[in-house]
Amino acid sequence: MEENQLLEKFQEKVDAEIKVEPKDWMPEKYRKTLIRQISQHAHSEVVGMLPEANWLTRAPSLRRKMILLAKIQDEAGHGLYLYSAAETLGVDRQELVEELLSGKAKYSSIFNYPTLTWADIGAVGWLVDGAAIMNQVMLTRTSYGPYSRAMVRICKEESFHQRQGFEIVATLAKGTPEQKEMAQDALNRWWWPSLMMFGPRDDNSPNTAQSMKWKIKRKTNDELREEFIDRTVQQAEAIGLTVPDKDLKWNEERGHYDHGEINWDEFYNVIQGNGPCNQERMKARRDAYDNGRWVREAAKAYAAKRAAKAA
Ligand code: BYC
Fold it and tell me: Which atom of ligand 1 is nearest to the CA of 132?
Protein backbone atom coordinates (compact mmCIF):
# COMPACT_ATOMS: atom_id res chain seq x y z
CA MET A 1 0.00 0.00 0.00
CA GLU A 2 1.04 3.58 -0.61
CA GLU A 3 2.04 5.71 2.39
CA ASN A 4 -1.14 7.80 2.05
CA GLN A 5 -3.38 4.75 2.09
CA LEU A 6 -1.53 3.37 5.09
CA LEU A 7 -1.99 6.66 6.88
CA GLU A 8 -5.69 6.68 6.09
CA LYS A 9 -6.15 3.12 7.34
CA PHE A 10 -4.19 3.96 10.47
CA GLN A 11 -6.45 6.93 11.19
CA GLU A 12 -9.56 4.80 10.62
CA LYS A 13 -8.29 2.28 13.11
CA VAL A 14 -7.55 4.94 15.70
CA ASP A 15 -10.96 6.51 15.11
CA ALA A 16 -12.59 3.11 15.58
CA GLU A 17 -10.91 2.91 19.01
CA ILE A 18 -8.82 -0.13 18.07
CA LYS A 19 -5.57 -0.07 20.04
CA VAL A 20 -2.30 0.19 18.13
CA GLU A 21 0.02 -2.65 19.11
CA PRO A 22 3.85 -2.85 18.79
CA LYS A 23 3.97 -4.91 15.60
CA ASP A 24 1.25 -2.94 13.76
CA TRP A 25 2.15 -0.46 11.06
CA MET A 26 2.29 3.07 12.43
CA PRO A 27 3.39 6.42 11.04
CA GLU A 28 6.98 7.25 11.93
CA LYS A 29 5.86 10.47 13.59
CA TYR A 30 3.39 8.55 15.79
CA ARG A 31 6.22 6.25 16.90
CA LYS A 32 8.56 9.17 17.54
CA THR A 33 5.96 11.13 19.48
CA LEU A 34 5.27 8.15 21.70
CA ILE A 35 8.94 7.45 22.32
CA ARG A 36 9.40 11.10 23.31
CA GLN A 37 6.36 11.23 25.56
CA ILE A 38 6.69 7.81 27.20
CA SER A 39 10.42 8.16 27.83
CA GLN A 40 10.03 11.67 29.25
CA HIS A 41 7.27 10.29 31.42
CA ALA A 42 9.59 7.49 32.60
CA HIS A 43 12.39 9.97 33.32
CA SER A 44 9.92 12.07 35.34
CA GLU A 45 9.02 9.09 37.50
CA VAL A 46 12.67 8.39 38.20
CA VAL A 47 13.75 12.00 38.80
CA GLY A 48 10.54 12.45 40.80
CA MET A 49 11.93 10.17 43.48
CA LEU A 50 14.61 12.73 44.38
CA PRO A 51 12.61 15.56 45.99
CA GLU A 52 10.75 13.01 48.12
CA ALA A 53 13.86 11.08 49.08
CA ASN A 54 15.09 14.32 50.65
CA TRP A 55 12.65 13.72 53.53
CA LEU A 56 13.06 9.98 54.06
CA THR A 57 15.48 10.32 56.95
CA ARG A 58 13.45 13.10 58.52
CA ALA A 59 9.89 11.79 58.25
CA PRO A 60 8.08 12.68 61.50
CA SER A 61 7.16 9.10 62.46
CA LEU A 62 7.96 5.51 61.56
CA ARG A 63 4.52 5.19 59.94
CA ARG A 64 5.13 8.24 57.73
CA LYS A 65 8.59 6.96 56.84
CA MET A 66 7.27 3.56 55.77
CA ILE A 67 4.56 5.13 53.62
CA LEU A 68 7.02 7.52 51.98
CA LEU A 69 9.48 4.72 51.31
CA ALA A 70 6.75 2.62 49.67
CA LYS A 71 5.62 5.58 47.57
CA ILE A 72 9.11 6.31 46.30
CA GLN A 73 9.53 2.65 45.45
CA ASP A 74 6.27 2.79 43.48
CA GLU A 75 7.70 5.66 41.41
CA ALA A 76 10.72 3.53 40.53
CA GLY A 77 8.33 0.79 39.42
CA HIS A 78 6.39 3.27 37.25
CA GLY A 79 9.64 4.33 35.61
CA LEU A 80 10.42 0.71 34.81
CA TYR A 81 7.01 -0.08 33.27
CA LEU A 82 7.27 3.05 31.20
CA TYR A 83 10.78 2.29 29.92
CA SER A 84 9.47 -1.16 28.98
CA ALA A 85 6.49 0.37 27.17
CA ALA A 86 8.87 2.67 25.26
CA GLU A 87 11.06 -0.30 24.31
CA THR A 88 8.12 -1.92 22.52
CA LEU A 89 8.52 0.90 19.99
CA GLY A 90 11.93 -0.41 18.99
CA VAL A 91 14.16 1.86 21.04
CA ASP A 92 16.78 0.73 23.49
CA ARG A 93 16.47 1.65 27.17
CA GLN A 94 20.17 2.50 27.34
CA GLU A 95 19.67 5.08 24.60
CA LEU A 96 16.79 6.66 26.53
CA VAL A 97 18.77 6.82 29.77
CA GLU A 98 21.67 8.43 27.91
CA GLU A 99 19.33 11.06 26.51
CA LEU A 100 18.26 11.94 30.03
CA LEU A 101 21.81 12.06 31.36
CA SER A 102 23.07 14.20 28.47
CA GLY A 103 20.23 16.67 29.05
CA LYS A 104 18.69 16.01 25.61
CA ALA A 105 15.48 14.50 26.98
CA LYS A 106 13.18 16.45 29.23
CA TYR A 107 11.50 15.38 32.46
CA SER A 108 8.65 17.08 34.24
CA SER A 109 9.36 20.69 35.22
CA ILE A 110 7.88 20.10 38.67
CA PHE A 111 10.80 18.07 39.95
CA ASN A 112 13.13 21.03 39.67
CA TYR A 113 11.64 22.64 42.78
CA PRO A 114 12.97 21.97 46.29
CA THR A 115 11.12 20.20 49.11
CA LEU A 116 11.89 22.58 51.97
CA THR A 117 9.63 21.32 54.76
CA TRP A 118 7.72 18.15 55.67
CA ALA A 119 4.54 19.89 54.44
CA ASP A 120 6.10 19.86 50.97
CA ILE A 121 5.91 16.06 51.00
CA GLY A 122 2.18 16.42 51.60
CA ALA A 123 1.92 19.03 48.84
CA VAL A 124 3.83 16.80 46.41
CA GLY A 125 1.40 13.93 47.01
CA TRP A 126 -1.71 16.09 46.99
CA LEU A 127 -0.87 18.47 44.13
CA VAL A 128 1.88 16.80 42.07
CA ASP A 129 0.47 13.28 42.15
CA GLY A 130 -2.98 14.87 41.89
CA ALA A 131 -1.99 16.62 38.64
CA ALA A 132 -0.15 13.53 37.40
CA ILE A 133 -3.18 11.33 37.91
CA MET A 134 -5.49 13.72 36.09
CA ASN A 135 -3.23 13.39 33.08
CA GLN A 136 -2.69 9.67 33.51
CA VAL A 137 -6.36 8.69 33.84
CA MET A 138 -6.75 10.22 30.39
CA LEU A 139 -3.73 8.21 29.22
CA THR A 140 -5.34 4.89 30.23
CA ARG A 141 -7.38 5.53 27.06
CA THR A 142 -4.42 6.45 24.87
CA SER A 143 -4.35 4.75 21.46
CA TYR A 144 -1.08 2.85 21.98
CA GLY A 145 -1.82 -0.47 23.74
CA PRO A 146 1.29 -0.96 25.91
CA TYR A 147 1.21 2.66 27.17
CA SER A 148 -2.47 2.48 27.96
CA ARG A 149 -2.11 -0.79 29.89
CA ALA A 150 0.87 0.49 31.89
CA MET A 151 -1.22 3.51 32.87
CA VAL A 152 -4.01 1.41 34.37
CA ARG A 153 -1.75 0.01 37.04
CA ILE A 154 0.12 3.25 37.56
CA CYS A 155 -3.15 5.14 38.15
CA LYS A 156 -4.19 2.77 40.92
CA GLU A 157 -0.97 3.51 42.77
CA GLU A 158 -1.05 7.25 42.02
CA SER A 159 -4.50 7.62 43.51
CA PHE A 160 -3.18 6.17 46.77
CA HIS A 161 -0.25 8.62 46.58
CA GLN A 162 -2.58 11.55 46.08
CA ARG A 163 -4.67 10.61 49.09
CA GLN A 164 -1.70 10.10 51.38
CA GLY A 165 -0.41 13.56 50.39
CA PHE A 166 -3.77 15.16 51.04
CA GLU A 167 -3.90 13.43 54.42
CA ILE A 168 -0.51 14.88 55.40
CA VAL A 169 -1.59 18.40 54.42
CA ALA A 170 -5.03 18.01 56.05
CA THR A 171 -3.40 16.81 59.30
CA LEU A 172 -1.06 19.81 59.35
CA ALA A 173 -3.88 22.19 58.45
CA LYS A 174 -5.83 21.19 61.55
CA GLY A 175 -2.73 21.12 63.78
CA THR A 176 -1.03 23.96 65.65
CA PRO A 177 -0.96 27.47 64.10
CA GLU A 178 2.67 26.81 63.06
CA GLN A 179 1.69 23.55 61.36
CA LYS A 180 -1.18 25.21 59.53
CA GLU A 181 1.18 27.96 58.39
CA MET A 182 3.60 25.32 57.12
CA ALA A 183 0.80 23.69 55.10
CA GLN A 184 -0.27 27.05 53.65
CA ASP A 185 3.33 27.90 52.77
CA ALA A 186 3.71 24.58 50.92
CA LEU A 187 0.49 25.24 48.99
CA ASN A 188 1.73 28.75 48.14
CA ARG A 189 4.99 27.41 46.70
CA TRP A 190 3.63 24.30 44.89
CA TRP A 191 0.39 25.64 43.43
CA TRP A 192 1.74 27.44 40.35
CA PRO A 193 4.43 24.88 39.46
CA SER A 194 1.72 22.17 39.68
CA LEU A 195 -0.39 24.04 37.11
CA MET A 196 2.66 24.17 34.84
CA MET A 197 2.90 20.37 34.86
CA PHE A 198 0.09 20.21 32.27
CA GLY A 199 2.33 21.93 29.74
CA PRO A 200 1.97 25.16 27.74
CA ARG A 201 -1.40 26.69 26.92
CA ASP A 202 -3.16 24.98 24.02
CA ASP A 203 -2.50 27.89 21.67
CA ASN A 204 1.20 27.47 22.41
CA SER A 205 1.47 23.68 22.48
CA PRO A 206 3.15 22.43 19.29
CA ASN A 207 2.29 18.74 19.83
CA THR A 208 -1.30 18.79 21.04
CA ALA A 209 -3.24 18.96 17.75
CA GLN A 210 -1.56 15.92 16.17
CA SER A 211 -1.54 13.97 19.44
CA MET A 212 -5.28 14.57 19.84
CA LYS A 213 -5.92 13.44 16.27
CA TRP A 214 -4.00 10.22 16.89
CA LYS A 215 -5.68 9.87 20.29
CA ILE A 216 -2.33 9.74 22.05
CA LYS A 217 -3.78 12.56 24.14
CA ARG A 218 -7.52 12.54 24.84
CA LYS A 219 -7.71 15.93 26.46
CA THR A 220 -5.70 19.07 25.85
CA ASN A 221 -3.29 20.65 28.32
CA ASP A 222 -5.78 23.41 29.18
CA GLU A 223 -8.71 21.02 29.61
CA LEU A 224 -6.79 18.91 32.10
CA ARG A 225 -5.46 21.97 33.94
CA GLU A 226 -9.00 23.28 34.33
CA GLU A 227 -10.24 19.95 35.71
CA PHE A 228 -7.38 19.94 38.18
CA ILE A 229 -8.12 23.48 39.36
CA ASP A 230 -11.85 22.79 39.75
CA ARG A 231 -11.20 19.77 41.90
CA THR A 232 -8.26 21.04 43.95
CA VAL A 233 -9.67 24.44 44.92
CA GLN A 234 -12.54 22.69 46.66
CA GLN A 235 -10.15 20.35 48.46
CA ALA A 236 -8.12 23.35 49.72
CA GLU A 237 -11.29 25.02 50.97
CA ALA A 238 -12.36 21.86 52.77
CA ILE A 239 -9.21 21.94 54.91
CA GLY A 240 -9.18 25.70 55.44
CA LEU A 241 -6.28 26.60 53.14
CA THR A 242 -6.25 29.38 50.54
CA VAL A 243 -5.14 28.89 46.94
CA PRO A 244 -2.57 31.63 46.21
CA ASP A 245 -4.35 33.19 43.24
CA LYS A 246 -6.16 36.48 43.79
CA ASP A 247 -7.90 36.16 40.41
CA LEU A 248 -9.42 32.77 41.20
CA LYS A 249 -13.18 33.04 40.89
CA TRP A 250 -16.00 30.59 40.17
CA ASN A 251 -17.53 31.35 36.78
CA GLU A 252 -21.16 30.27 36.94
CA GLU A 253 -21.65 30.53 33.20
CA ARG A 254 -18.68 28.34 32.28
CA GLY A 255 -19.08 26.01 35.25
CA HIS A 256 -15.34 26.35 35.96
CA TYR A 257 -12.99 28.55 37.95
CA ASP A 258 -11.39 31.51 36.20
CA HIS A 259 -7.79 31.83 37.29
CA GLY A 260 -4.81 34.17 37.12
CA GLU A 261 -2.11 33.95 34.45
CA ILE A 262 0.63 31.37 34.86
CA ASN A 263 4.19 32.69 34.77
CA TRP A 264 5.20 31.12 31.46
CA ASP A 265 8.66 32.69 31.55
CA GLU A 266 9.30 30.69 34.69
CA PHE A 267 8.03 27.50 33.02
CA TYR A 268 10.27 27.86 29.95
CA ASN A 269 13.20 28.81 32.12
CA VAL A 270 12.76 25.62 34.17
CA ILE A 271 12.40 23.32 31.15
CA GLN A 272 15.49 24.88 29.61
CA GLY A 273 17.48 23.68 32.61
CA ASN A 274 17.52 26.84 34.74
CA GLY A 275 15.08 25.98 37.53
CA PRO A 276 16.09 26.04 41.21
CA CYS A 277 17.15 22.36 41.32
CA ASN A 278 17.87 21.31 37.70
CA GLN A 279 21.60 20.97 38.25
CA GLU A 280 21.21 19.13 41.53
CA ARG A 281 18.73 16.65 40.01
CA MET A 282 20.91 15.90 37.00
CA LYS A 283 23.97 15.46 39.19
CA ALA A 284 22.08 12.99 41.38
CA ARG A 285 21.01 10.96 38.32
CA ARG A 286 24.50 10.98 36.80
CA ASP A 287 26.08 9.97 40.12
CA ALA A 288 23.53 7.15 40.52
CA TYR A 289 24.35 5.95 37.01
CA ASP A 290 28.10 5.99 37.64
CA ASN A 291 27.86 4.44 41.09
CA GLY A 292 25.58 1.70 39.81
CA ARG A 293 27.91 0.68 36.99
CA TRP A 294 29.45 -2.20 38.95
CA VAL A 295 25.99 -3.58 39.74
CA ARG A 296 25.02 -3.60 36.07
CA GLU A 297 28.32 -5.21 35.13
CA ALA A 298 27.99 -7.85 37.84
CA ALA A 299 24.38 -8.62 36.83
CA LYS A 300 25.43 -9.02 33.19
CA ALA A 301 28.38 -11.26 34.10
CA TYR A 302 26.12 -13.38 36.31
CA ALA A 303 23.50 -13.72 33.55
CA ALA A 304 26.20 -14.73 31.04
CA LYS A 305 27.58 -17.31 33.47
CA ARG A 306 24.13 -18.83 34.04
CA ALA A 307 23.41 -18.89 30.30
CA ALA A 308 26.75 -20.63 29.67
CA LYS A 309 25.97 -23.19 32.38
CA ALA A 310 22.50 -23.84 30.97
CA ALA A 311 23.94 -24.32 27.47
N1 BYC B 1 7.75 19.70 32.02
O2 BYC B 1 3.46 20.46 22.86
P3 BYC B 1 3.46 20.19 24.33
C4 BYC B 1 5.21 11.94 37.54
C5 BYC B 1 7.46 20.14 26.96
S6 BYC B 1 4.20 13.12 36.91
C7 BYC B 1 8.73 19.56 31.11
O8 BYC B 1 2.23 20.55 25.07
P9 BYC B 1 3.06 17.36 24.78
C10 BYC B 1 5.32 11.77 39.00
C11 BYC B 1 7.04 19.04 26.00
O12 BYC B 1 7.70 17.83 26.33
C13 BYC B 1 4.84 13.90 35.48
N14 BYC B 1 8.50 19.68 29.77
O15 BYC B 1 3.92 18.68 24.58
C16 BYC B 1 4.42 12.29 39.89
C17 BYC B 1 7.44 19.63 24.69
O18 BYC B 1 8.86 19.57 24.52
P19 BYC B 1 9.58 18.47 23.57
C20 BYC B 1 5.06 13.06 34.27
C21 BYC B 1 7.23 19.93 29.39
O22 BYC B 1 4.02 16.23 24.90
C23 BYC B 1 4.62 12.18 41.25
C24 BYC B 1 7.14 21.12 24.89
O25 BYC B 1 7.16 21.34 26.27
N26 BYC B 1 3.87 12.89 33.48
O27 BYC B 1 5.87 11.34 36.78
O28 BYC B 1 1.97 17.25 23.76
C29 BYC B 1 5.76 11.55 41.76
C30 BYC B 1 5.81 21.53 24.29
O31 BYC B 1 4.69 20.97 25.01
C32 BYC B 1 6.18 20.05 30.29
C33 BYC B 1 3.95 12.77 32.14
O34 BYC B 1 5.01 12.86 31.57
C35 BYC B 1 6.47 19.94 31.67
N36 BYC B 1 5.53 20.08 32.62
O37 BYC B 1 2.32 17.60 26.19
C38 BYC B 1 6.68 11.04 40.87
C39 BYC B 1 2.66 12.50 31.41
N40 BYC B 1 5.05 20.29 29.60
O41 BYC B 1 9.32 17.12 24.22
C42 BYC B 1 6.47 11.12 39.50
C43 BYC B 1 2.85 12.15 29.97
C44 BYC B 1 5.38 20.32 28.31
O45 BYC B 1 8.89 18.58 22.25
N46 BYC B 1 3.12 13.32 29.17
N47 BYC B 1 6.69 20.12 28.19
O48 BYC B 1 11.01 18.86 23.59
C49 BYC B 1 2.14 14.12 28.65
O50 BYC B 1 0.96 13.92 28.87
C51 BYC B 1 2.58 15.24 27.74
O52 BYC B 1 3.88 14.98 27.29
C53 BYC B 1 2.53 16.65 28.41
C54 BYC B 1 3.04 17.69 27.39
C55 BYC B 1 1.08 17.00 28.76
C56 BYC B 1 3.40 16.73 29.65
Answer: 6
